[in-house]
Design brief:
Layout lengths: L4 H37 L14 H26 L4 H6 L2 H8 L1 H34 L9 E7 L8 H16 L4 E8 L8 E6 L2 H4 L5 E8 L3 H5 L3 E4 L13 E5 H7 L9 E5 L6 E9 L14 E5 L10 E6 L7 H9 L6 E7 H44 L1 H9 L4 H30 L15 H27 L3 H6 L2
Parallel strand pairs: 4-9, 6-8
Antiparallel strand pairs: 1-10, 1-11, 2-4, 2-10, 3-4, 3-7, 5-8, 6-9, 7-8
């Protein structure tokens, strides 16, 4: 009728732009709601948490992404549609020929969606396995019915070791007097809270060769610490009140240091060199070996540990305290504050929380990563399923006459369903294979985030493959069932 190419492209590209604008607006709205919720779920130590928001830069990027999508997936089909084969149009075959001309591009897009979705599914599967393993990691103490807090000021401000020790014992006595409190302890620092300081240690061989000194973390504790924390004693004994003296050079080491210092033999009774009080290293005697305690994170074991008594290092009056209670530790917060405050106004109780909360906070980073990657995987899986459905629905329209012929020649409904589903499965398998390779390559990036599972974990890869094949079958079933329900006579007249 005389329309030029520009007038043919304009309405098709306009339609693509309208769809892109609507999709961008919905996406920005969902992102705004998701960010608001994720900020509440994110761990407190997530860098720049407060700066995560939908700002002008994000809106500009979203607009450009929508425009690019409209140009890529709207302009190309519009350009192709603007140069139809006129004889096919006049013969009434324009619909099927037009659909067939874009089949390769549609298939390529679906394969790419499947590959991306599979990579994200693998990532979420690995994070899920890591989270399960994280739940089983022993922090080195029993967090149940344990209330932790810090006591600042008071005995720590005293000038002499004797005054600091006297203040520490007054706090112990006040806390023990609270009804329902089973035991009390203090340390510098506390497990899973960080703040550890490294020192050098070595065996007798380090006297002749200083290069054999190694770094380890040390912790200052008071007698009864390990019993109260329920850290397992593996060999020897723990500290007693007699050991809590300035001149008693007794230490307790964890199992990791014992194995490293004295492999294949008992560490109890052995001597090691430490450099903590004096410029020169001095010998201290190991009287016990205990289980390893996690220092900052459940995901990372941390360095080996040496434990000193408070008095040996000058009675610093450890600021980190903990009480073990018979019931919910959170219910003792008021009584603990009252007991400490009753000693002196110079005391400040800070960072009070149940130890179970401390353990949960140590899991927060992995839990948040799992949530984030899992959400991306769900969105990508839905998009891949929708894309696969769209391609197969279009393919059914292309092959309407073919399906009619097959049914007229005796094909059963099950045969038609199988025909369409197999087409979807072929696209899915190609996407899964590509995603499989990409996941292995990109898995190295996730290695630092994983706990107790390798980036190439076969169980995860196999299970995620099965899950995605189920998604593909469901996405393929609907257009397949629709194709199987076609009336052969109507289908034969479609062409």
């Amino acid at each position: 009728m005389g329309a030029n190419r520009g007038r043919l492209i304009a309405p098709l590209f306009t339609e693509a732009c309208l769809l892109a604008v609507a999709g961008t607006a919905v996406g920005v709205g969902l992102a705004w709601a998701a960010i608001r919720e994720l900020r509440h779920l994110a761990p407190a130590n997530l860098p720049r948490l407060d700066s995560i928001a939908i700002d002008g830069t994000v809106l500009a990027f979203a607009a450009l992404a929508g425009l690019a999508a409209a140009a890529l997936f709207g302009l190309a089909p519009a350009w192709r549609a603007s140069q139809p084969a006129l004889m096919n149009v006049l013969r009434g075959a324009s619909r099927t020929s037009g659909l067939a001309s874009g089949a390769t591009l549609r298939n390529a897009v679906v394969v790419a969606e499947v590959a991306l979705s599979f990579v994200l599914l693998i990532g979420s599967g690995l994070m899920f396995r890591s989270f399960l393993d994280l739940q089983r990691i022993d922090p080195g103490f029993d967090p149940h019915h344990l209330l932790t807090f810090q006591v600042l000021g008071g005995p720590r401000d005293a000038k002499t070791p004797a005054e600091r020790e006297a203040g520490r014992r007054r706090i112990q006595d006040r806390l023990r007097a609270i009804p329902g409190v089973e035991s009390v302890t203090a340390s510098i620092p506390f497990p899973l809270t960080g703040g550890y300081s490294p020192i050098r240690w070595g065996t007798e061989a380090a006297q002749a060769d200083p290069s054999k000194y190694q770094a380890t973390d040390f912790q200052i504790v008071i007698p009864g610490y390990f019993e109260m924390m329920r850290t397992p004693l593996l060999a020897g004994r723990t500290f007693t009140e007699d050991d809590d003296q300035p001149g008693r050079d007794y230490v307790i080491v964890d199992e990791d240091l014992a194995k490293k210092a004295f492999p294949g033999q008992s560490a109890v009774g052995q001597r090691i060199l430490t450099r903590i009080q004096t410029p020169q290293a001095v010998f201290v005697q190991i009287i016990g070996v205990v289980g390893h305690q996690r220092e900052e994170s459940l995901a990372v074991p941390g360095r080996e540990q040496i434990y000193f008594t408070d008095a040996y290092l000058g009675s610093f009056a450890p600021p980190s305290w903990a009480i073990r209670t018979r019931s919910d530790p959170a219910s003792y917060e008021g009584e603990v504050r009252a007991a400490i405050g009753g000693l002196s106004r110079s005391y400040l109780v800070d960072k009070m929380e149940p130890a179970e909360t401390v353990v949960q906070e140590a899991q927060a980073g992995t839990r948040f990563s799992l949530l984030l990657i899992g959400l991306f995987a769900i969105v990508a899986g839905v998009l891949a399923g929708v894309g696969l459905y769209g391609v197969l629905a279009t393919a059914v329209r292309q092959r309407t006459s073919e399906i009619g012929v097959r049914m007229a020649m005796g094909a059963e409904r099950g045969d038609i369903v199988k025909l369409v589903v197999m087409q979807g499965m072929r696209l899915s398998v190609v996407g899964i294979v590509l995603g499989f390779v990409a996941a292995i390559v990109l898995g190295r990036v996730m290695t630092s985030m994983l706990v107790g599972v390798k980036a190439t974990d076969p169980v995860t890869y196999v299970s995620m493959s099965v899950i995605f094949l189920v998604i593909a079958i469901v996405a393929s079933w609907l257009p397949a069932w629709r194709a199987a329900g076609l009336d052969p006579k109507t289908a034969l007249h479609e062409n």
